[in-house]
């Protein structure tokens, strides 16, 4: 590091010189822009180092200089003529080093000891140009040292100012402690309040959870009761409804007594109503089994090509309108590990529902792999379903308001049963539909089970 030409030099020989070097150090610090407290620290450090050096029995050459580049700082160098004592001096001046930013004690090859001290100039200090440095040198040359009494008076003033500052800091600290104590009291009061509120909330949450558990038990019991009721009623109804259908068939048989046209019409009406009722009873029974968890899938490798062919053949009689194209595409996946009966039931329900509500256009079944899943898609060009009803159609007995099947009758159980079977098979069933454009039902199943 290059240091500019020194501001001033002096020789420290006797104790009175300690007062002179102290005064000179304070003046230099003031001239280069150090603040009042830093002026006092620098002057005190210089005088204390001078005292230690004189006690060691030799004088010292004191040099004041400024390094204006990089981080500007005031540098003071005190060269001691006696060598070999740097460790001892460093130990004696350990406390002095706290007054400055840096302090170094070096031996000069046994010929002497050099002590270097530096204090950084505060930010915003005016630039120390060569002209300004010459002005400071001229001021220092004209400086007349005061007497020891004058220096003592200055030190007393500085001590009083330091005491006043300490007293002000102590008062500020006391005020801050009082504010902190008040804040702590408020925080503790708020903490206790929040703790009480939290405890009360926890009690409410515990009570709510207990109520929810109780409601869950009641709901589970009600669901089980509903499933048992549906299963029992459906089972009990199947026998008389089947008997009604059989009796109707006997009445219209050619070997029975001849009926009038009106009687035949009434009997056909009874048979039709009984068949519809049997369909509803069978649907209720299947739904009750699914809800009760009594359906266990039989996992086998399903030949999708054969299944699609069977669906094409069994549902072809329902596609009797020439305005509707019933298309069962060749599956893009040859086989799938699933339950063949349950999978066929889901697809049959979806296709039957689509054929019922499609007046013209097409009903199409396809299958394709999508990542780790296989998607079965049933798309139609029927009346469509409003977006807000996409989930309601999977509720039991729900039918879209204003929708009328083109053929057959709907029970409102086909889609709920299909979704439950999809869950049993490890997949899901979703719908995308736009009114007037048709509906697309997608059955997603894992490729492997």
Give structural attributes.
449 residues; alpha+beta; Heat Shock Protein 90; Helix Hairpins; 3 domains; five-stranded antiparallel sheet; five-stranded mixed sheet; 9 helices; 12 strands; 18% strand; rod-shaped; phosphorelay sensor kinase activity
Could you describe the 3D structure shown?
It is built from nine helices and twelve strands. The protein has helices at residues 15-32, 36-55, 86-92, 130-141, 148-251, 261-291, 304-315, 340-356, 414-424, and strands at residues 8-12, 60-67, 73-80, 102-107, 113-120, 300-303, 324-328, 335-338, 361-370, 373-380, 428-434, 438-446. A hairpin with a 3-residue loop joins strand 11 and strand 12 (438-446). The longest helix is centred in the middle third of the chain and has 104 residues, at 148-251. It holds the Pfam family HATPase_c.
Sheet of most strands: 5 strands, antiparallel
**Amino-to-carboxy terminus distance:** 78 Å
CATH superfamily of the largest domain: Histidine kinase-like ATPase, C-terminal domain
Structural class category: alpha+beta
Q: Write the CATH fold name of the largest domain.
A: Heat Shock Protein 90
User: In CATH, what is the class of the largest domain?
Assistant: Alpha Beta
**pLDDT < 50 stretches:** none
**Helix run count:** 9
Within the largest sheet, what's the order of strands? Answer: 1-2-3-5-4
What's the CATH architecture of the largest domain? 2-Layer Sandwich
Question: What fraction, in percent, of the residue positions are helical?
Answer: 40-55%
Count structural domains. Answer: 3
Q: How many beta-strand segments? A: 12
Strand content: 15-25%
H and E string: EHHEEHEEHHHEHEEHEEHEE
Radius of gyration: 52 Å
